[in-house]
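My current task is to audit a protein record that another person submitted. What it holds is a sequence and that sequence's fold in token form. Thanks in advance; the entry in question is below.
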Amino acid sequence: MAGTRQIILQEIESKVKSADGHNVIWIKGSPGVGKSALAASISTRLEDQGRHVISFRFDRTRSTEITTEALWRIIASDLVCQYPSLHQHLVEGNRKLRSSDIDHLFKLLIETPLSTLDDDMPYEELPVIVIDALDECGGLRHNSSGMDDYEGLLRTLKRWALVDCLRKFKLIITSRPEDQIAQTFPESISIHVNIPSGNDVKFGDSASKDIQAFLMSCLSAMGMDEAWVSEACGYLVPRAAGMFIWATTVAKFLKKNPKQRFDILKTREHERGADRFEELYSLYSTVIRTSFHDLEEEEIQAFASVIGATIFAKQPLDDTRLMKLPGVDTLKFIRDGLVSVIDSGPILRFHHRSFEDFLLSDSFRRYLPKLSDVQNRTLHERQLAVLCLNSMVSSELHFNICNLESSNIKNVDIPATVKSAISPLISYSSQFWADHLVQNQCEESLMNAVKFVMHEKLLFWIEAMSILGKAHEVSAILKKVLEWPGLVVCLEFISYTTTLRLAG
């Protein structure tokens, strides 16, 4: 918001412009304090001053595509546009890559090419790298590949702070104050900028004033009188505790019926705790309880299925795919009830990572025990595995799925053809069916579906993966299935039960 965060923006800007000191600036803070907004604002300010900025943002909901490898390839591509002399070095480095080893990739595509640049280049003309949401690399990190990606990121980033040819380039990172990041970037090799929240935010300081300005603007826009706006801000601003996500969520929550919902917020006072996340989690609890207080059993199951799938899916899902989950007949009551915490659009996506954290927290189970199946990963992994396998078993996955004429393949607009011929569900299922399958125990129904896909649909699946540009992932997916712990046991069980049936 214009006019807010001026002091901290000026502090960061002065550190970026200084040629002295450490080259890594770590902006850290609790969820919802506005780290991403600061990263975007500082990028814009630097660009307005003629400084070249390379920006990258990790997103936990897209961890399979927004990876450490993607980060360094994008930065390398951007750098070669600014320094054409790097082109041949990057081509040569890419040619030498023989594996997905991120350390090797960083060495060949970033470190070696940049070591060839002249040392006397004007400092103010050097690009600034901005990496937002560093802690979201690797997704929920509930599997080894996500953790490996995150740890590879930290290793390569540390080299940015230590290698001589890289130290002249300023690197801005934002994240929560996680221990691993703190160990990677101690103050001896980096500059720390802490965004206060909780008890660190005092009445009348810049964070409180910024949130007050935001809330007064929002509440006044609802047509409320000045006296009520002043009373509401007096109550709400201290409870925001420096967290802009609390302020934006409460503003959206109040929009439907400001006076009535403000009274509801005040009755939730007893839920506040000493933990600085508790106020935010209490707000999220109020949002859900206000909207879903009288759900029928079927609606509770639908809510858990949809929200659980949104958490554990490998990519955000649209309404069409979510409607195929068991017991889900409509998404309208879910979308209407969560309007203050989800993005608009056809993809059901949480507005902020902190809401997902709340859904997986002990606080969620304490506040909303009837909805606790949201956290049942076993349930959701099975439902997602079944969803994927059912779609692949169906007639949607078939020979020549895009109806391509082989003689005219060079003239086909592949992206447009894929978009029209391969449904989002087939696209998702083809890429991630194995990821969900291996999270499940042995079940005859799952094994039979896998056997059918392998015996009847294997070539159709490989064709779909090829058209999606994912053919290189096929062998890794098959290897994952072969390493499924329940595979051998399940095959023996099916053989045994088949023998009994025949004997019967």
Observations:
- The beta strands are 24-28, 53-57, 128-132, 171-175, 191-194.
- The two ends are 74 Å apart (CA to CA).
- Residues 200-291 form one domain.
